[in-house]
Structures are given as structure tokens and as C-alpha cells.
Amino acid sequence: MAKGPELRDPRTLYSQPPFSQQEQSEPGLAQDMKPLPDHGEESYKGSGRLEGRRALITGGDSGIGRAVAIAYAREGAEVCINYLPTEEPDADQVSTLLKDERRTLHRMPGDVSEEKVARKLVTDAADKMGGLDILVINAGKQVTQPDVTRISSEQFDQTMKVNVYAMFWMTQEALEIMPPGGSIINVTSIQGYRPSPQILDYATTKFAIRGFTEGLAPMALERGIRVNAVAPGPFWTALQPSHGQPMEKVEHFGEGAPMGRPGQPAEIASAFVYLASNEASYTVGEILAVTGGKPTS
Ligand code: NAD
Ligand code: MG
């Protein structure tokens, strides 16, 4: 009998808190985190589930987006990643990795909080790849403040722009060009169910993403396009030490999950593979929670 994958205890699979003190400026780089996140670089094995598909992933340089880019590419998809220009060092890493494996990855830096950029990103990606089958709207902004009175209008506005407006703009463009069978995947959060007071503006956007996903799904299905979302719990990504959490919380990040540790991006990528694949043909308007056991209700 062929030897299958090793049976592993999920509790001890990855580093557990406490982590060392670390602080980065926003948006942060995965390559400067201690310990380095696991995006599936060594572990993700594809099996042709997305062969021939054309995918655009925002925030694809690092964290959850990078893990999805690696998984999609190894499943056979052609992939475009978007990220902020300051994140080139992280984009370089994933691009080099996948190019060495002869996968096709296009780099498309740009700030999706600008309407023109967000809309053009979708049409440019479709032009580059000869069409668009999968859109993963994953870019996110999260900046902690100790009290609601400390959230500036500028911060509130920018968080809404990146997390909510960009989703709205990109969805409008995608619906015009995606063929039936296409898949749009949004990224909400456990924060879209159980908001933490220190990230109130962010949590508000994650509720909005959940509502938008559920409301849009039946309408998009009239075009044969499936819309779903993923709701991550605590994941070890650059979002957290770049002022996404109070610094003392970063050291204990993930401790509150029944798993006792944060998830690694590699542990959520297959949820995105599933939602994009033909196997999910009956899955619509679903919010798939991957939280290390943290309840969403
Ligand atoms: P990350 O920092 O690695 O990824 C977020 C990405 O958003 C950045 O890499 C950046 O490229 C992109 N981004 C931010 N502002 C942008 C802008 N103006 N224009 C273009 N791109 C921009 O962190 P992550 O945790 O992998 O985040 C991915 C998604 O997962 C986000 O939507 C986040 O809200 C969500 N999420 C994360 C967690 C967690 O614990 N890490 C939990 C729940 C939800
Ligand atoms: Mg990044």
C-alpha cells in the first residue's frame, strides 16, 4: 500500500505563543516576521484542480494571499497578484519561487483604495491572461486604536476604501467579464461576527463584506458566477505586527483560539482552492470559517 501523508497533531504543528516582540510599519513584510510565516512554500502539492484557470489575487505578496497564490499556481492556474508598491520584497519572494517552478505569475502593484486603480486592475489582469475566471479580493487594512475616539476620519475612510469600496469596484468590473463558472471569493473575518473594540473600523468592514457576499451571491449566480467568502480566525501574517494589534497582543497572538496558536497561511489556502474549483459548484453565498476552533456565533 502506498504511504499516505503523515498523521499530524494540529496543536503542535507550528510555533505557539509567546512570540518575540516585533513591530513593523504598515503594511509590513512577511520576510521580516519572527518566526517566518508558512505560506506552503515547501508543503503545498497541487493536483491539477485549477488547470487552465486565470486568477487575480489582491494582497498576493504575503500572508493568506501569498498562500493562495502558491496553491492556485501549483493547481495549474495562471495567477496575477496585486499588492502595494512598498511590498516588492515580499512579491519578489513569491514570484521567484513560482517562476523557478515554471508557473506563471504576473506582478501588478497598485493601490486599490483608488477607484481607477482597483477597476483597471481587474480589466488589466483579464487582458494579460486572456480572461478572468477567479477573483480573490483579499487585500485588507487593519490599524488598531485604543478607543473609538482615536480613530481619525482619514483612517476610517482608508479602511473602508481598501476593505469595502475596492471589493465593490472590483466586483462590478469582474461581473462584466467573468464567464459562467467563474468564482469570486471575498475575505471577511471572525471580526465580522465578533468585533474587537480595538479594531472597530476594521471589524465594521468585515461585517460589510459578509453582508455584501451573502446579498450578491444570488444575483451573481444569475450569470453563473459563484460568490463566497472565507472568514479567517487569527493568522500569523504581516497584518498583525504592523499595527494591526497592540504590540503586547502580537506576542500572545492566537492564544485565545482553542488551538492555542495562530494559524499559518498554509493552513487556509485549500479553502480558497475548494471555493474556486469545480467541486464547489453547489457552494454559493457561503462564508467558510477557518478559525482554529473559535466560534463565529
Ligand atoms: P497581509 O498583510 O499579509 O495581507 C494584506 C495585504 O493587503 C497586504 O499584503 C497588501 O498587499 C494588501 N493591501 C493593503 N492595503 C492595500 C492597498 N491600499 N492596495 C493594495 N493592496 C493593499 O495580511 P493577511 O492577514 O494575509 O490579510 C489578508 C486578508 O485576510 C485581509 O483581508 C485580512 O483582513 C484578512 N484576515 C486576516 C486575519 C489574520 O489574523 N491575519 C484574520 C481575519 C481576516
Ligand atoms: Mg503584504
Automatic annotation (TrEMBL):
Keywords: Oxidoreductase
Signal peptide stretch: none
Compositional bias annotation for Basic and acidic residues: 1-11, 35-50
Biased composition (Low complexity): 15-27
An annotated Gene Ontology molecular function: oxidoreductase activity, acting on CH-OH group of donors
Pfam families: adh_short_C2
Domain of life: Bacteria
Chain residue ranges for the region called Disordered: 1-50
Keyword Transmembrane helix tagged: no
Gene3D superfamilies in the cross-refs: NAD(P)-binding Rossmann-like Domain (3.40.50.720)
InterPro entries recorded: NAD(P)-bd_dom_sf, Sc_DH/Rdtase_CS, SDR_fam
Family: Belongs to the short-chain dehydrogenases/reductases (SDR) family.
PANTHER family in alphabetical order: NADPH-DEPENDENT ALDEHYDE REDUCTASE 1, CHLOROPLASTIC, NADPH-DEPENDENT ALDEHYDE REDUCTASE-LIKE PROTEIN, CHLOROPLASTIC-RELATED
Name of the molecule in the record: Uncharacterized oxidoreductase YghA
Organism: Jannaschia seosinensis
